[in-house]
Design brief:
The chain is an alpha+beta fold. It is 26% helix and 17% strand. Helix 4 packs parallel to helix 10 and helix 11 packs across helix 13.
Length: 495
């Protein structure tokens, strides 16, 4: 039997469709990942005009207040003084479903927070789970295709999802969470939020620490079973959030971080930049640093909730990226998606605009000048400095330095990142990583009722896949915990 050759859209054979090119197994991606970029760029343009993922959501404004200063580990202006407050905009969403889906699908929930700081907007673009299905972005379009409606029938097809998971054991940890009792939140007020990705802090001394963010709901976790969810109105979670804020019952979250030194990361027993894994609390404890409250509904859903554009690349001085491969790809993909979906000047839309002076040399494009950033006069077609003198020198360097033309600030530069190993640039296979231990540990802390829900939820969809896919999934469950596999097997036998 002759295999069909996988190619790029231009017809060139593809050498590897499972691994991006990186600087060593734990290092960052390189800019010669043209095939990865092709996949992501095309993926961002598959849907018009709704978001390709996180399409269905709701949002509100609020405040973040610091309860513990982080000035020793970061120069981030909004994390320096106990009691200081920062305006935020938080959007919740389902991930895989379109605008026509229900708020109560079994799906992760997006948890994206835009912090309007004095040094620009920082976007914490995460989910309600601490891990994700993948650790290499080259598989993200494929994964989402498996979750979306079947390409032939345009209806949901659980067999497609399990076929993907059977071929990608790295998904086991997140899939276990998704199929557990936490797979369907009762409301957006009753979910945790996580950066999921490893990010970085750096201080005035140029010292770097790795960090994970946690937002723990003060309302407590509440979930629904499949049967309970089926009785809920499709828009119920959105209505619940709007009504709660309207009543003055402002939902809130305790904000925590896990902080790991660069030295600790080098010898950590798991890859600290693997998005499919958590950092055990016993080894990297959480530290409370603040409180986040939502206290104002949007005025116009389309202008604010629908047009808000979160991007993991929206960093501020003191917060930066890590070698997390999934994060690295999102630094490109999200900005690219926004320019496609809502235009080149999406950051001039009021909900996206910084609440600080915005000075740059970008020009023209659709909707240029639609907003009025702080420090600029209404009607500016482009803006490059506080005086609005765009026509003087719309480039840098120029001869207007000292006369209002914006200049770089070297003091906020991210510290250089060392290569953590004697790395070779190329495809680094991750299929032999341990994707089972943490899924097994999660399974073992579930009580009997939670485990039975897990078995039944998995069996409901897995029963629609063929025998080979079922066998491969059971093998994965057995590697996590033999009781996990046996429970699913028994549930399958009753369908």
């Amino acid at each position: 039997m002759t295999n069909t050759v996988l190619t790029t859209s231009a017809g060139a054979p593809v050498a590897d469709d499972n691994n991006s090119i990186s600087v060593g197994a734990r290092g960052p991606l390189t800019f010669d990942n043209h095939y990865l970029f092709e996949k992501l760029a095309h993926f961002n343009r598959e849907r018009i005009p709704e978001r390709v993922v996180h399409a269905r959501g709701t949002a509100a404004y609020g405040t973040f207040m610091v309860t513990k200063s982080l000035k020793d580990v970061t120069i981030a202006d909004f994390l320096q003084v106990v009691g200081q407050q920062t305006e935020v905009f938080l959007r919740f969403s389902t991930v895989g479903g379109g605008q026509d889906s229900s708020d109560y699908g079994r799906d992760p929930r997006g948890f994206a927070v835009k912090f309007y700081t004095k040094q620009g907007n920082w976007d914490m673009v995460g989910n309600n789970t601490p891990v994700f299905f993948l650790n290499d972005p080259i598989k993200f379009p494929d994964f989402i295709h498996s979750q979306k409606k079947d390409a032939r029938t345009n209806t949901p097809n659980p067999a497609n999802a399990f076929e993907f998971w059977a071929n990608h054991p790295q998904s086991l940890h997140q899939m276990t969470i998704l199929m557990s009792d936490r797979g369907i939140p009762a409301s957006y007020r009753h979910v945790h939020g996580f950066s999921s990705h490893t990010l970085s802090f750096y201080n005035a001394k140029g010292e770097r620490h790795w960090v994970k963010w946690h937002f723990k709901t003060n309302q407590g976790i509440k979930t629904l079973t499949n049967e309970e969810a089926a009785k809920m109105p499709a828009h119920g979670a959105q209505q619940d959030l709007v009504n709660a804020i309207h009543r003055g019952e402002f939902p809130s979250w305790t904000v925590q971080v896990q902080i790991m030194s660069e030295t600790q990361a080098r010898s950590f027993h798991i890859n600290p930049f693997d998005l499919t894994k958590v950092w055990p609390y016993k080894e990297v404890p959480v530290v409370e640093i603040g409180q986040l409250e939502l206290n104002k509904n949007v005025h116009n859903y389309f202008a604010e909730t629908e047009q808000v554009a979160f991007a993991p690349s929206n960093f501020v001085p003191g917060i930066a990226a890590s070698p997390d491969k999934m994060l690295q790809a999102r630094l490109l993909a999200y900005q690219d998606a926004h320019r496609y979906r809502i235009g080149a000047n999406f950051n001039q839309i009021p909900v996206n605009a910084g609440k600080c002076p915005v000075n740059h040399y970008q020009r023209d494009g659709a909707f240029a000048g639609m907003g009025c950033p702080v420090g600029h006069s209404a009607g500016d077609t482009n803006y490059a400095n506080a005086a609005g003198h765009v026509s003087a020198s719309n480039f840098y360097p120029n001869d207007r330095v000292g006369q209002g033309a914006p200049v770089p600030v070297p003091q906020v530069a991210v510290p250089p990142m060392p290569v953590l190993e004697d790395a070779w640039i190329g495809y680094h296979d991750q299929s032999q990583e341990d994707y089972y231990s943490q899924a097994g540990a999660l399974f073992r802390i579930m009580n009997d009722s939670q485990q039975q829900q897990l078995f039944n939820n998995i069996a409901g969809g897995l029963s629609q896949a063929n025998a080979d896919i079922q066998a491969r999934m059971l093998a994965q469950f057995a590697k996590a915990d033999p009781a996990y596999a046996e429970g699913v097997k028994q549930a399958l036998s009753k369908i």
